[in-house]
Design goal:
This protein is mostly helical and 261 residues long. The protein is 45% helix and 5% strand. It has twelve helices and four strands, in the order E-E-H-H-H-H-H-H-H-H-H-H-E-E-H-H.
């Protein structure tokens, strides 16, 4: 017999805070209790905790989280999105992907990047990623950005871009995927005189070449006429290349290393 989502559970709150509840007390049971804790008058900590509890009520909890994703902004929306994404079956996730929170510290609009990734336009999305990073570091009107710009890209924008790539590609692409591959291959990092992190591969006379090889950046799969999702090496995108970067192709490495990725 299915459980009633409005019946109190062992983790429900008691109005007045007394346990066991007094005769005149009211138990905030089920999904209604969760909604009460999500009231905007409560602290953010209480509201976030309530989101986690929502999933204990099955479908009713998922519907509540979905409403939060569609109507809220900021941290609450992001937490609800992540909880909902993890609780969905694979075939249920595609619609939710359209609502990935597109957060930016300076108001960059990532909807075009989301559309390209949702459409499987991987190479166009790669070019769009470079343009969005250029905008996010304040160089939209210039023809280049350099290593310091990549190092100073805000955590908010970096994570938005990375999350879009990872979730639409089912963890096939993304900065986090690239970082994981390098760490698994034994790559380390060092700080240069400007305190900027670089990867390197121990005991290698040509570490940058080997790093590019590990990430598939030397593969013929990148030729537009040959490119397919199935043949593209895992972690090969995004690859920020071209005239936008001053100083050469090795400058994406600090972007991958970021400890806040």
């Amino acid at each position: 017999m299915p459980e009633n989502p409005n019946q109190p559970r062992e983790y429900d709150a008691v109005l007045g805070g007394q346990a066991p509840p007094p005769v005149s007390g009211v138990v905030l049971g089920g999904i209604e209790g969760v909604k009460r804790r999500l009231d905007s008058t409560h602290s953010q900590e209480i509201r976030i905790a309530a989101l986690s509890d929502a999933l204990k009520y099955g479908k009713a909890g998922q519907e509540l989280l979905n409403q939060i994703v569609l109507t809220e902004t900021g941290v609450l929306q992001s937490v609800a999105y992540d909880l909902l994404f993890e609780s969905f079956r694979q075939n249920e996730k595609q619609n939710l992907l359209q609502h990935i929170p597109l957060k930016s510290k300076i108001g960059v609009d990532y909807r075009s990047l989301r559309h390209l990734l949702a459409s499987g336009e991987w190479l166009r999305a790669n070019l769009e990623t470079g343009e969005k990073i250029q905008e996010a570091v304040g160089k939209k009107s210039q023809s280049y950005y350099d290593i310091n710009d990549l190092h100073n890209l805000s955590q908010t924008d970096l994570r938005t871009i990375d999350q879009l790539w990872m979730k639409f590609s089912n963890n096939h692409f993304g900065f986090s995927v690239q970082k994981r591959i390098l760490l698994e291959e034994g790559c380390k990092f060092y700080q240069d005189r400007d305190n900027l992190p670089f990867f390197y591969q121990p005991n290698s006379s040509d570490s940058v070449f080997n790093i590019y090889k590990k990430l598939g950046w030397l593969s013929s799969a990148f030729e537009t006429s040959r490119f397919t999702f199935k043949t593209a090496p895992i972690g090969s995108l995004p690859w920020i290349t071209g005239k936008e970067i001053r100083g050469g192709w090795s400058y994406q490495i600090p972007l991958i290393y970021r400890s806040d990725l």
